[in-house]
C-alpha cells in the first residue's frame, strides 16, 4: 500500500521503457543508457501532460481561448522539462543515472481500476494535502461550486509545486549536476509554475458549475488512495 498520490495512467511504452532503463542500470550494463533515458523522459512528459492537463480540454469541453491556453501551457511545460532533462542526461554515465532511475521507479504504481490492474505514475502527496484535495472535491460537487474556485487555485498551485519538486528538483539533485544545469533547472521550474498559475487564473473563474463538477470528478479519478508500488524484476 502506498501513501496518497495524485497520479496519471501510463502508456505501455512508458512503463516498458522505464522498466528497461531501471533494469539495465541496476544490472551494471556497460552500454551507455543516455539515449534510452532521454526517450523515457520524453514519454514521461507526454503522459504526464496528457493525464494532468491536456485531457481537461475534452473533459471540461473547453473551447477557443481556454483550449488554446491549456495547450500553450502544455507546450511551455514540455519545452522546460525536455530541455533540462536532455541537457542533464546526455553527458551522464550509467552509474550517475542510477539514483535518478531508482527515484523514477518509486513514482510507479499498479492501480486497480474496475477489477483491472493498470500502470500509473504520479506525485506523492502528504496527508494534509490529500485532505485538502478531498475537501476541494466535495466543495466542487456542492450546490455552489463557484465558492470553491479560490480553494481550487490554491490546491492546484500546491500540486504544481509538488510535481515540479518531484520531477525536476529531486531528479536534478540526484544527478548531481553542476551550477549551470542547476540554474537551468531553477528557470525551468519557474517557467512551469508561472505557466500553470496564469492558466489557472484565466480559466478556473470562468468555468461554469457543470464544468467545475466535472473537474471534481477528474481530480477524484487522479487522487489515488490505494495502489501498489511496482516491483521491477529482471528477467531470468
Topology:
Blueprint: E1 5-9, H1 12-27, H2 34-54, H3 56-59, H4 64-89, H5 94-105, E2 108-113, E3 116-124, H6 127-140, H7 149-175, H8 179-203, H9 209-222, E4 223-224, E5 228-229
Antiparallel strand pairs: 1-3, 1-4, 2-3, 2-5
Helix pairs in contact: 1-2, 1-5, 2-4, 4-8, 5-7, 6-7, 6-9, 7-8
Explain the overall architecture.
- By secondary structure, the chain is α+β, with helices and mostly antiparallel strands.
- It has one domain (5-229).
- It has helices at residues 12-27, 34-54, 56-59, 64-89, 94-105, 127-140, 149-175, 179-203, 209-222; strands spanning 5-9, 108-113, 116-124, 223-224, 228-229.
- A five-stranded antiparallel sheet has the order 4-1-3-2-5.
- Strand 2 (108-113) and strand 3 form a beta hairpin.
- The two termini are 27 Å apart.
- 36% of the residues are buried.
Task: Summarize it.
Helix content is 67%, strand content 10%.
Uncertain segments are none
Number of strands: 5
* Strands in their spatial order, largest beta sheet: 4-1-3-2-5
| Helical content band | 55-70%
3D shape: globular
Largest sheet: 5 strands, antiparallel
Structural class: alpha+beta
Q: What is the overall pLDDT average?
A: 90
Amino acid at each position: 500500500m502506498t501513501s496518497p498520490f495524485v497520479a496519471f495512467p501510463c502508456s505501455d511504452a512508458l512503463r516498458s521503457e522505464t522498466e528497461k532503463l531501471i533494469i539495465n542500470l541496476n544490472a551494471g550494463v556497460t552500454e551507455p543508457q543516455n539515449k534510452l533515458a532521454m526517450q523515457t523522459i520524453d514519454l514521461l512528459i507526454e503522459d504526464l501532460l496528457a493525464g494532468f492537463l491536456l485531457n481537461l480540454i475534452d473533459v471540461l469541453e473547453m473551447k477557443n481561448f481556454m483550449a488554446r491556453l491549456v495547450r500553450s501551457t502544455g507546450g511551455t511545460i514540455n519545452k522546460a522539462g525536455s530541455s533540462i532533462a536532455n541537457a542533464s542526461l546526455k553527458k551522464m554515465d550509467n552509474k550517475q543515472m542510477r539514483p535518478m532511475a531508482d527515484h523514477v521507479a518509486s513514482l510507479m504504481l499498479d492501480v486497480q481500476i474496475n477489477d483491472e490492474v493498470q500502470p500509473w505514475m504520479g506525485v506523492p502527496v502528504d496527508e494534509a494535502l490529500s485532505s485538502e484535495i478531498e475537501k476541494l472535491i466535495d466543495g466542487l460537487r456542492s450546490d455552489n461550486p463557484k465558492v470553491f474556485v479560490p480553494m481550487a487555485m490554491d490546491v492546484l498551485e500546491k500540486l504544481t509545486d509538488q510535481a515540479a519538486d518531484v520531477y525536476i528538483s529531486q531528479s536534478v539533485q540526484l544527478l548531481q549536476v553542476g551550477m549551470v544545469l542547476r540554474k537551468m533547472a531553477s528557470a525551468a521550474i519557474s517557467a512551469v509554475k508561472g505557466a500553470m498559475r496564469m492558466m489557472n487564473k484565466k480559466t478556473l473563474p470562468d468555468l461554469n458549475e457543470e464544468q467545475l463538477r466535472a473537474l471534481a470528478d477528474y481530480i477524484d479519478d487522479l487522487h489515488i488512495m490505494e495502489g501498489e508500488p511496482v516491483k521491477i524484476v529482471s528477467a531470468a
